[in-house]
Specification:
With about 325 residues, this protein is mostly helical. Helices cover about 70% and strands about 0% of the residues. α3 runs antiparallel to α4. Belongs to the FPP/GGPP synthase family.
């Protein structure tokens, strides 16, 4: 697959070219969807739309549609729906996180204000619903349930684990809700609108959710393991902000005496550069990283096993290549 599709190794040039053409259609439809007769709404909505991004979820819609009729009339609109939904959540996330930048630009909440950012996200949700209304009640139901899971995941993250709940299990639930659910819906809706059979739709829904969880877990590992010159990102951002991701949660599960200093650091203010550097170095050398990689591999292996039950077509190889990509990016 071409580099524009996440840099995956080539699996089928014809498929890659077809997906690229369809993604261009999605891009055009996306720009039309955020148009408003009120200039501020259009400007605020285009703020993230025009900033680009991988269009990962629309790509999954288009790949899933290969198991039915990829030219079916609902495929492009539903790809736009999942991207609008994703973009809407980013506007809301930036408000909750008090973000300053997003995709290399000043965030909407910083360029305008929190109210404009929240309402812009709401506008994008409304536009997604408007498009869905023409795609049938089942598509509307899937989107509504996905939206409920997104909200639940965000509330769970905000509230934290309840007393007596395993923090690691709670974290996986949050990831499945906030990240996995919309990626699952992308596979589900793409296959459904292309007219794929129910077993194929169910398999793609489940496998795509696992891929979504795996992507977040790989990001957790990269945040600790990567060097800034390799990844282009500053390592340990989540660590500095006190966000307890997968490797950190594995450390906090440990009661070993030799982990006392690291646990102490993880419970401290890591905005201090010296403490942050020490915690990052200790975490990189800790067995928690191997445990996190084992968790990642398990999610990927389960997704791969499900994908292998699908018909042997080029799109299946693309999905399997995606599984390989999730693993190799943390190697």
């Amino acid at each position: 697959m071409s580099s524009a599709l996440l840099g995956l190794p080539a699996v089928d040039d014809t498929l890659a070219a077809g997906i690229q053409e369809r993604l261009a259609e999605v891009e055009e439809a996306l720009r039309e969807a955020v148009q408003s007769d009120y200039a501020l709404i259009t400007d605020a909505s285009r703020h993230l739309t025009d900033a680009g991004g991988k269009r990962f979820r629309p790509m999954l819609v288009l790949l899933a549609a290969q198991f039915g009729d990829p030219a079916a009339p609902g495929v492009i609109p539903v790809a736009v729906v999942v991207e609008l939904t994703h973009l809407a959540t980013l506007y809301h996330d930036d408000v909750m996180d008090e973000a300053v930048m997003r995709r290399g630009q000043v965030s909407a909440n910083n360029r305008w204000n929190n109210t404009i950012a929240i309402l812009t996200g709401d506008f994008l949700f409304a536009r997604a619903s408007d498009i869905l209304a023409d795609l049938g009640p089942e598509a509307v139901r899937i989107q509504a349930r996905t939206f409920a899971r997104l909200v639940r995941g965000q509330i769970q993250e905000t509230a934290g684990p309840a007393e007596g709940t395993d923090p690691l299990e709670h974290y996986i639930e949050v990831v499945a809700g906030k990240t996995g659910s919309l990626i699952a819906a992308s596979g589900q809706l793409g296959a459904l609108l292309a007219g794929a059979g129910p077993e194929i739709v169910a398999t793609l829904t489940s496998a795509c959710e696992k891929i979504g969880v795996a992507f977040q877990l790989s990001d957790d590992i990269l945040d600790i393991a990567s060097e800034s010159e390799e990844s282009g990102k500053t390592p340990g951002i989540d660590l500095r902000e006190g966000i307890r991701t997968l490797p950190v949660l594995h450390v906090l599960r440990s009661a070993a005496d030799e982990d006392a200093r690291l646990r102490e650091l993880l419970d401290s203010d890591l905005t201090d550069d010296a403490r942050h550097a020490e915690a990052l170095a200790l975490l990189r050398a800790h067995p928690a990283m191997d445990r996190a990689r084992a968790d990642l591999r398990r999610w990927v292996d389960e997704a791969r096993a499900e994908l292998l039950t699908l018909p042997d077509v080029p799109a299946r190889e693309a999905f399997l290549s995606l599984c390989d990509f999730v693993l190799t990016r943390t190697a």
